[in-house]
Specification:
The chain contains three helices and six strands, in the order ααββαββββ. Helix content is 36%, strand content 49%. The protein has one domain (7-144): Nuclear Transport Factor 2, Chain: A (Roll), CATH 3.10.450.50.
Length: 146
């Protein structure tokens, strides 16, 4: 009696669990990095500047329409900045290693900056790395959305 199992069926049985396993760490990594980004935003919402600064790597570089800035400048310039509300949409993720990943998303935000109310839509990219057991943002770029 001939077997009706094809090579394709065998490969599917062997590869499907491997593919599912390979995707799970990426999903877990994405969830962890998105959670870190949200926690950083929550620190801006509550005004906890020490927590906000703690999310930034000492060698972090942030880029916006004004140019690039390091951690000290970012922390200094966000002293008069508070988020009231924000919504992250269209989140995309690229795993770079087991301990790093890039997220890209659009944020609709409102708050106060230097005593003036604002609302904006911004495209954001952020690169997060786990260093010494702690997640830190090493790069972020913000571009006003059209």
């Amino acid at each position: 009696m001939k077997s009706s199992i094809s090579l394709g069926s065998i490969l599917s049985l062997v590869l499907t669990p491997a593919l599912v396993y390979a995707q799970q760490p990426t999903k877990a990594l994405q969830d962890e990095i998105v959670a870190q980004e949200r926690a950083e935003l929550e620190a801006l919402k509550t005004g906890d500047m020490a927590a906000f600064a703690g999310f930034l790597a000492d060698d972090a570089v942030f880029v916006d329409a004004s140019g690039s800035a390091g951690k000290d400048d970012i922390v200094k310039h966000t002293q008069g900045f508070r988020l009231h509300d924000y919504t992250m949409t269209d989140v995309r993720f690229v795993a770079l290693s087991r301990d790093s990943g890039l997220i890209v998303y659009q944020i609709a935000e409102s708050g106060v900056s230097r005593g003036k109310e604002f609302s904006a839509k911004v495209n954001v990219s952020a690169l997060w790395v786990k260093r010494n057991g702690r997640w830190v943002c090493v790069f972020s770029q913000e571009t006003a959305a059209k």
